[in-house]
Design brief:
The complex is a heterodimer. By secondary structure, chain A is of the alpha/beta class. Helix content of chain A is about 40%, strand content about 35%. Chain A contains 4 helices and 5 strands, in the order ββαβαβαβα. In chain A, strand 3, helix 2 and strand 4 form a beta-alpha-beta unit. The radius of gyration of chain A is 12 Å and the shape is globular. Chain B is of the alpha+beta class. Chain B has a 5-stranded antiparallel β-sheet with strand order 1-2-3-5-4, covered by helices on one side. In chain B, helix 2 packs antiparallel against helix 3. Classes of the chains: A alpha/beta, B alpha+beta. The interface between A and B is medium-sized, with 23 and 25 residues.
């Protein structure tokens, strides 16, 4: 799994690719908490378009990001969810909890 | 027996197990969503063994064995996939194997829900220091499974 970070206007975008599972979810958690808690970025968007698989530990990392955003008053958005990522969020009944967009343009324009 | 894997409890190996289980379910004729859900169930079960039975030690033994399952339904025989996972880790209290309520938004406790939602049978037993998790998923009755 790889994570890269870029800035577009006021939004920090984290592009994730590969599988998010027990071996890689700590890295996702760390990256999200760095931007939200340490750097106090007010708008963070996670690009999941290139994520082939996400497990419960990956979802837990996203929930931690969500909680951090609520604590700091930031917005935390997801976009580009694959079928697998959407299925797992639906199984977890978390689809309506997250701010989810189909595309990067929609997330940036929100 | 269809296949047997002897693995270490290393999270880096989870992707390899997912690849094997997904190909096997495809070959057995499961529909695509069920291939994904059975693969997810095995991945989550392995994750639970690594985290909870072995406390994240990466060099402990896990055995995964797959069998062709069969059950009678009406006058027909329905085929499926039976997966047995064995480990020698800490004893897991079956009472703890419920997962957390899904209406709580907090990290953790989701893996067991994924397993239960994916499989037709989930049974946990422990004997002689070995934890055994038995997972079974049946094909839909009208789908004929290709032999291989």
């Amino acid at each position: 799994m790889q994570i890269s970070v870029r800035q577009i206007e006021k939004t920090t975008i984290l592009d994730v690719s590969g599988d998010i599972d027990l071996s890689s979810s700590p890295e996702v958690r760390k990256a999200l908490l760095r931007e939200l808690r340490e750097n106090r970025i007010p708008r963070v968007a996670l690009n999941l378009r290139e994520v082939r698989y996400i497990d419960s530990s990956g979802i837990a990392s996203l929930v931690e990001g969500l909680k951090a955003s609520r604590d700091t008053g930031a917005r935390f958005m997801l976009f580009g969810l694959s079928t697998i990522a959407r299925e797992v969020l639906q199984l977890s009944r978390l689809v309506k909890v997250f701010e989810i967009y189909d595309t990067e343009e929609q997330a940036l324009g929100s | 027996m269809l296949l047997k894997l002897e693995l270490q409890s290393n999270p880096e190996l989870l992707c390899a197990v997912r690849g094997v289980v997904e190909r096997l379910t495809e070959k057995m004729g499961f529909p695509e969503p069920e291939c994904r859900s059975v693969t997810r169930a095995v991945d989550e079960a392995m994750t639970n063994i690594i985290r909870h039975a072995y406390g994240n030690q990466p060099d402990q033994p896990i055995e995964l064995t797959c069998f062709r399952a069969k059950r009678a339904e009406g006058g027909d025989s329905v085929e499926g996939l039976e997966i047995i996972l064995k480990d020698q880790g800490a004893q897991v209290d079956p009472e703890d194997m419920h997962g957390r309520p899904l209406d709580e938004v907090k990290p953790g406790g989701l893996g067991l829900h994924y397993i239960r939602q994916s499989m037709d049978i989930m049974e946990f037993t422990r004997a002689d220091g070995t934890n055994q998790l038995r997972l079974v998923k049946y094909l839909q009755p009208k789908v004929s499974a290709p032999r291989f």
